[in-house]
Amino acid sequence: MTMTAPNESQTSVDWLISVDDHVIEPPNVWQDRLPAKFKEAGPRLATDDKGEAWFYDGKRIPTLGLSAAAGKSKEEFSPEPLAYSEMRAGCYDPVARIDDMNQANILASLCFPSFPRLCGQTFYEGQDRELGELCVRAYNDWMIEEWAGSAPGRYIPLVIVPLWDPKLAAAEIRRTSGLGAKAVSFSENPAPLGLPSLHHDRGRYWDPVFEAAAECGMPLCTHFGSSSSLMKTSAETPMIATVAMNPTSLLLSTIDWLFSGILPRFPDLKICLSEGGLGWIPWVLQRSDYTLDRQRYWAASGEIEGDMLDGVSISQNAGEQLDYSIPPSQLFRDHIYGCFIDEPDAELLIAQIGIDNVMVETDYPHTDSSWPNSGELLGKQIAGLSADDRYKVLRGNAEKVFHFTPAEIPISVG
């Protein structure tokens, strides 16, 4: 099969690497790869009296229209279930996806999962841990061999891990790194999942994961919503307000990372703030530096105990003290990357954040996606940058962070 090469009108638009897209898994992913005794219990796509859905762990899980909105106008967006026959083929077919990528000047794409959810929560919530681990491995093998393998240099393989066991997760990171994986999807906040937070045991609980990721040069991609929780200020918060709040989970997560003590212990660990945008980052860096300077002499020594009305005291932390010798803003620049789809003030924000800490996204095929105008939109938003800086933001930083060499342009696969 021959994939469409970019047309002449596109050659004046810079090409980009999107570090946040999504794949709707085709029906064969787990049925082709699970051992025979697990096929019936493993994820399978079937049709019942309610229509088409995935079935796994006693649950019926349809694919929602908001996850496969490519090709639809914003007036047509809907959360109603959507059958594969109603989706654009680029949602689930890697060859068709390349044609869609070429339309938007997307040279390469990193894709988050859909049925497993953003960082594999579906398998973490399953009752059978043996099956869950096999499902994680099957997904990762498919992502590397079939999805990314269908068009070398066009996809950055992102893998999931068995969240319930940091040592198993570390082993899976090392296994998939040997197969060509380039990144790991990790929760932006494990605590709402019922897992230890980044601060648990002075940040040591997740050390096997962080050590393996740093050792293998695989960034942790933390997508908002990977905590399986929506940002809400009250039970009455309307959905449209919740959608607007979503990226604030990454704002909070970033502050967690900066004060967790983890980053100084893993100098090679990288964190990508997937679909978080840029606007809040300068404030977080300023506020975090200011807080450390003004409040460290009392607040860094322990935790508040008591009632604010009756008086409080500070409990002294026992054991290891966290390393706060490096300013949060420097930790950010050494470890963390902001990612954006559409930022009218991109140039101003990049100047404040740092040219080496920003990458771009297109969010295909979700409702926030800039496709099919991604290349044109981003080109306009960073038009005032130098050619070298435009290259860094659009693709150079991604190549460096993910240790990834994209295919040449134009691309023709026979």
Structure, described:
The chain is α/β, with parallel strands linked by helices. The chain contains 14 helices and 14 strands. The chain has one domain: TIM Barrel, CATH 3.20.20.140. Residues 1-11 have low confidence and may be disordered. The chain is globular. α5 (166-179) packs parallel to α6 (207-216). The protein has helices at residues 28-31, 94-103, 121-125, 129-147, 166-179, 207-216, 239-245, 248-259, 262-265, 281-299, 328-335, 346-353, 374-381, 387-401, and strands at residues 16-22, 44-48, 51-56, 59-61, 106-112, 155-156, 158-159, 183-185, 220-223, 271-274, 302-307, 311-316, 336-340, 358-360.
In short:
The protein is an alpha/beta fold and 414 residues long.
CATH-assigned homologous superfamily = Metal-dependent hydrolases
Radius of gyration: 22 Å
**Spatial sequence of strands, sheet with the most strands:** 7-8-9-10-13-14
End-to-end gap: 5 Å
Mean pLDDT: 93
- Category by helix and strand content: alpha/beta
Quickly count the helices.
Answer: 14
